[in-house]
Amino acid sequence: MTEPRAEPARERSAAALWKLARSAVRSVWRTQGEVAGLPRLALRAVPTRSAAGLLTKQALLWAWNYLKVVFTPRARFRRYSADPSTRPGVYTLPDSCVVALAADWGTGTKSAYAVAQAIRDEHPDVTIHLGDVYYSGTEDEFRQYFLGPGRWPLGALKGASGSARGAYTLNGNHEMYSGGAGYFRHALPALGQEASYLCLENADWRIVGLDTGYYAKSVPFLELIVDFIRLHRASRRWLKQVVFANPADRRPVILLSHHQWFSAFDTEYPRVGRQLRPYLDRVLLWFWGHEHRFAGYAPFGLGGAHVRARCIGHGGMPIELGAPIKRPDRPLVFSDERKARELDGEPIGYCGFVLLRFVGPELLVQYFDEAHTKLLEERWQSGPSGVVGSVTLHGALTLHRTLNALVS
Q: Dihedral of CA 279/285/289/293: which sign?
């Protein structure tokens, strides 16, 4: 894969994405409103009679498109068909390499493009997007805001047989609001990615990426009150029969997903953690998005195994600051409350990304904002007796607990 020739990227105003609710109804409304050229206030409005009255023709078109989305089955879930003994979906990484991560990036905002350029400037070997292309992951939105000019940055690896490719993308809830066609039928083939879950490994480390978004498409409005989020049975079977089939393999795992297991601020998805519980003792770090913030937790879990969680859902959305802590018993260590600018008179925060630098048994995790300012570093050393870590603060993050709790 090579980067396309330079062309002007299609840019969205951050105001168009400001306070976008996690709702198929609202997301499809904004998708269709953008196609129809609705003004910003109408685009952000709930699709009620007053909003629809601004442009009845476009409102009817939205209703038709939404009904098509609702009654269209999900795109087929792609799974590995090879014999588990051949370890399908497991790809080799160099022992020394750089992997870049970002989540909730597919927005087309100026901040998202700044994050992409900062990632390119680091010349990673692999890049992994943790999901969400807005508003509702249609094929056109993938073409415009993920694979088109200003695209998701590609890593340097070429993906020889059995080896890792330069770029991957996971599935999120917004991809599924349109049934997943843009993701499964367009994005995965464009990246040469076989399925929405994968494992990258070298002699000392493993990265496991999972699809927690597939069941986000649901009966209208029910996704707001019922937890449908879970792993597909094919990926659960793959985890058991392929990734974690050898109990003697104790290489530390970096786990990636779109949805969070727990949160001090927002919705929790306990079913995902329950399904992964047999393997969490091998997980060193779990990176997730979904919440549009940058935050880190001390080891914690719901009903059993503990993990060190890092929320990196600040890849491209406007970051709302000052959210109240709803669950003080969740061991939040830091959050980024720095003001980057104002939007509609309210402060918004910085977008950002993560670099994983592997050098044999050593792992350096670096966290940057959209201005390429380094905020935090974690150093991990894997050995026969386990993994030990240290942490260094570089930026003005808000600390809620002692920083060393991140690596305890």
A: positive
Q: Which residues contact 8 (CB under 8 A, 6 or more apart)?
A: 149
Structure tokens at 292: 């549009």
Q: Residue 6 has what pLDDT?
A: 47
Q: How far apart are CA 218 and CA 127, in angstroms?
A: 30
Q: 33, 58 in Cβ contact below 8 A?
A: yes
Report pLDDT digits (tens) over 218-242.
Answer: 655 555 566 689 999 999 999 999 9
The maximal CA–CA distance of the chain, rounded, in angstroms, is 67
Amino acid, res. 24: A
Contact 183, 133 (CB under 8 A): yes
Domain limits for position 339: 84-407
Which contacts of 38-41 are long-range, i.e. CB under 8 A and separated by 24 or more positions?
A: 40/13, 40/15, 40/16
Q: CA dist 289 to 37, 110, 259, 263, Å?
A: 29, 19, 6, 11
Q: How far apart are the first and last CA of the chain?
A: 40
Number of domains in the chain: 1
Q: Which CA distances in Å does 30 have to 158, 225, 257?
A: 36, 21, 25
- Indicate which CATH number applies to the domain containing 177: 3.60.21.10
Q: Find the angle CA(46)-CA(262)-CA(243) to the nearest 5 degrees.
A: 110
Q: Which stretch of 7-16, 123-132, 396-405 has the lowest confidence by average pLDDT?
A: 7-16
Cβ count near 6 (within 10 Å)? 8
pLDDT for the residue numbered 55: 47
Residue 390 placed within a domain: yes
Q: What angle do CA 277, 363, 279 make, to 5 degrees?
A: 10
Spatial neighbors of 389 by CB under 8 A, at least 6 apart, are: 378, 379, 380, 381, 406, 407
Backbone phi and psi for residue 158, each to the nearest 5 degrees, phi listed first: -100, -10
Give the rounded distance of the alpha carbon of 42 from its chain centre: 28
